[in-house]
């Protein structure tokens, strides 16, 4: 079998099967972990895997339709995969008292500030960008 | 070779976690409200079950740690929404980068300042720093800067649930002209839950929020070694 035929066959089998897509994503993750560990760069292997997949998509090696279902299958139930960590609260009965209220205050006040600052920054940046573009269009 | 008891405990808590999660999702579809969102209901029900069975956190997490390993592939899967939004990135990248850098800086500074003000310090303060970032990224950053990743996951969930509600009210007060700003507000401030809320407000807001959430995670993971260096 030629290389091209193998590639076409691979794409066909990937497109049809969500499980195969998830398997390929896991493979990219493992590769990323291996690279992260062997080179010692301080970026998590999963993020390297993300960039790997992005590269494959941008170069056209993998088509979006061959990965989309598998990726959204994982993303849709992301919550399930970090719920166990949330139960860490069991080990922290002190959160039921003053410390808990303090943490809550930090989160509420901090989030309000973050939201206001971010939204206003983006709004100002957006208007600035449009104005610059208009000026270029006129001149 | 693990003992039969360990295998039994692992199987029990794994099945319980998945079953309660699926049940919560169904409950939310029937009665959509903040209290019934799977992000609130699942941990509350699981905690009640663990308390009634006198299970400690270390026993529980020992049995369900494998679920969290899947966060690795989930992070890789984020490449797909980034790729799908490439037109928006190409068009608005200066504004997006500006918003993300300003927002992330504000998130870390306010968490640090407010915690210090309320005399929260040590690992608890460090665990609060990455709370505005999507969970898989936040946990890895927390570990990097010397926090407790599990506590960070708890704070991320709280931030998401509270932030989505706060953000909806903020929209009525803030004079925002662009859907870009409205989306960024939710993506930066309330990650996953915020994206769901932004999608209810508008399709454009939703996709901006999703994109901002992912980019915030990426930018912060890449900047974390620098932050860790500053904190040390």
From TrEMBL, chain A:
Domain of life: Bacteria
GO cellular component, one term: plasma membrane
InterPro entries xrefs: LrgA/CidA
Cell location: Cell membrane
Keywords tagged on the record: Cell membrane, Membrane, Transmembrane, Transmembrane helix
Transmembrane segments: 46-64, 71-90, 96-122
Topology of the protein relative to the lipid bilayer: Multi-pass membrane protein
Name used for this protein in its record: CidA/LrgA family protein
TrEMBL record, chain B:
Tagged with keyword GTP-binding: no
Keywords linked to the UniProt accession: Membrane, Transmembrane, Transmembrane helix
Membrane topology classification: Multi-pass membrane protein
Transmembrane segments: 6-23, 35-57, 63-83, 95-120, 208-231
Annotated localization: Membrane
GO terms for cellular component: membrane
InterPro entries: CidB/LrgB
Coiled-coil segments on the chain, per record: none
Protein name, as recorded: LrgB family protein
């Amino acid at each position: 079998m030629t290389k091209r035929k193998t590639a076409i066959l691979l794409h066909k089998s990937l497109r049809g099967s969500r499980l195969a897509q998830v398997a390929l994503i896991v493979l990219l993750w493992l590769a990323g972990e291996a690279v992260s560990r062997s080179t010692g760069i301080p970026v998590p292997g999963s993020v390297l895997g993300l960039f790997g997949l992005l590269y494959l998509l941008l170069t056209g090696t993998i088509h979006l339709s061959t990965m989309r279902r598998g990726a959204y299958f994982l993303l849709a139930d992301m919550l399930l995969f970090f719920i166990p960590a949330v139960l860490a609260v069991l080990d922290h009965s002190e959160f039921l008292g003053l410390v808990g209220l303090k943490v809550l205050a930090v989160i509420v006040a901090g989030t309000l500030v973050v939201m206001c600052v971010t939204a206003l920054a983006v709004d100002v940046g957006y208007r600035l960008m449009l104005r610059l573009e208009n000026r270029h269009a006129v001149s | 070779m693990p003992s039969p008891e360990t295998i039994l405990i692992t199987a029990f808590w794994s099945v319980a976690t998945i079953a309660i999660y699926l049940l919560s999702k169904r409950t939310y579809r029937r009665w959509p409200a903040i209290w019934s969102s799977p992000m609130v209901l699942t941990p509350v029900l699981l905690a009640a079950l663990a308390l009634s069975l006198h299970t400690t956190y270390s026993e529980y997490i020992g049995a369900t740690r494998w679920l969290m390993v899947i966060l690795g592939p989930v992070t890789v899967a984020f490449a797909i929404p980034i790729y799908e939004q490439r037109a928006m990135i190409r068009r608005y990248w200066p504004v997006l980068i500006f918003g993300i850098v300003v927002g992330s800086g504000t998130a870390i500074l306010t968490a640090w300042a407010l915690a210090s003000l309320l005399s929260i310090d040590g690992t608890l303060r460090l665990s609060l720093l990455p709370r505005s970032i999507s969970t898989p990224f936040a946990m890895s950053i927390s570990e990097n800067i010397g926090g407790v990743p599990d506590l960070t996951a708890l704070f991320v969930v709280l931030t998401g649930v509270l932030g989505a509600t706060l953000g909806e009210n903020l929209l009525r007060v803030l004079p925002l002209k662009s859907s870009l700003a409205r989306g960024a507000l939710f993506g930066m401030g309330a990650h996953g839950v915020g994206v769901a809320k932004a999608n209810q407000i508008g399709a454009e807001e939703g996709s901006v929020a999703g994109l901002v959430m992912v980019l915030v995670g990426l930018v912060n993971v890449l900047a974390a070694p620098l932050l860790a260096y500053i904190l040390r």
